[in-house]
Design a protein that fits this description.
It is a single chain. Helix content is 72%, strand content 0%. By secondary structure, it is an all-alpha fold. It has a single domain, classed as Orthogonal Bundle (MetI-like fold), CATH 1.10.3720. The relative contact order is 0.16.
């Protein structure tokens, strides 16, 4: 008989999936969901606590905090998806090529990856943003570059394991070309751990984007992002804590959702980790 399904863990993964789906729908339909525009001002209601008109209060300019948090979801999802995709694609290509061909190519590529990997993520992000300039696009690029070494190391290790399998040796023996072997024999057998890593990269990208925006290196005011909302709200914690608390809770729930989905994917693709 096969292993029994760990229902408590799968329930957590399902909860994570619901959170992620909700966040994605909010990001897609932000103009329809938000009660106000992200830049709409209500001067008479500056720093207003939660009311019927403004369910989560207003900021120092009278802008609706709920609406700004909803529109900020778009920035976080856009940055997270693009950065994780960039890291996944480029890192996988580097890791697969290094493991498949080996030799000097493996040595050069992986030593370069180790140099990038040696820098703390937030420090490398700040350095890249300082060099590229402050914008959402550059934040995507900087975070994506940070993810490349992790994906490349994982892809290399998975490819090395696949290359020892008999079906790869058989493909080489019948004269199958390198491109065909990689496309048909290698990639389909290493995609599972890469997808799990991608789910973790999503949540980490959201945190990094929020950090960069908090430092003034990501989305620029008046455009809303969770990071710059927290940065703005820290000066009003005594009289209007909701300005920072709302985006902080949004970051917490979104990261939690992606982490739970990542745990579910790990259990689904690796039965040895099931209880």
């Amino acid at each position: 008989m096969g292993r029994e399904i760990n229902w408590p863990r799968w329930r957590l993964a399902l909860i994570g999936g619901v959170i992620v789906l909700t966040v994605l729908l909010v990001a897609i339909f932000a103009p329809q969901v938000a009660p106000y525009g992200p830049l709409d001002l209500d001067v008479a209601q500056m720093l207003s606590p939660p009311t019927a008109a403004h369910p989560l209060g207003t900021d120092e300019l009278g802008r609706d905090v709920l609406s700004r948090a909803i529109f900020a979801t778009r920035v976080s999802m856009q940055v997270a998806f693009t950065a994780a995709l960039l890291g996944l694609v480029v890192g996988t290509v580097i890791g697969v090529l290094a493991a498949y061909f080996g030799g000097w190519l493996d040595l050069v590529l992986m030593r370069f990856m180790e140099v990038l990997f040696s820098f703390p993520a937030i420090l490398l992000a700040v350095v890249l943003m300082a060099a590229l300039g402050t914008s959402v696009f550059n934040a995507m690029l900087a975070i994506g570059i940070i993810f490349i070494p992790g994906f490349s190391r994982l892809a290399r290790a998975a490819t090395q394991a696949v290359m020892r399998q008999q079906y790869v040796e058989a493909a080489q023996a019948i004269g199958m070309g390198h491109t065909r072997i990689i496309a048909r024999e290698v990639l389909p057998n290493i995609i599972a751990p890469l997808l799990v890593e991608a789910a973790a990269a999503f949540s980490y990208a959201i945190l990094l984007e929020s950090m960069l925006s908090f430092l003034g290196l990501g989305a620029q005011p008046p455009d809303p992002s969770w990071g710059n909302m927290i940065s703005t709200g820290r000066g009003f914690m005594a009289q209007a804590p909701w300005i920072s608390v709302v985006p902080g809770c949004a970051i917490f729930l979104t990261v939690l959702g992606f982490n739970l989905v990542g745990d579910g994917l790990r259990d689904a693709f690796d039965p040895h980790l099931r209880d």
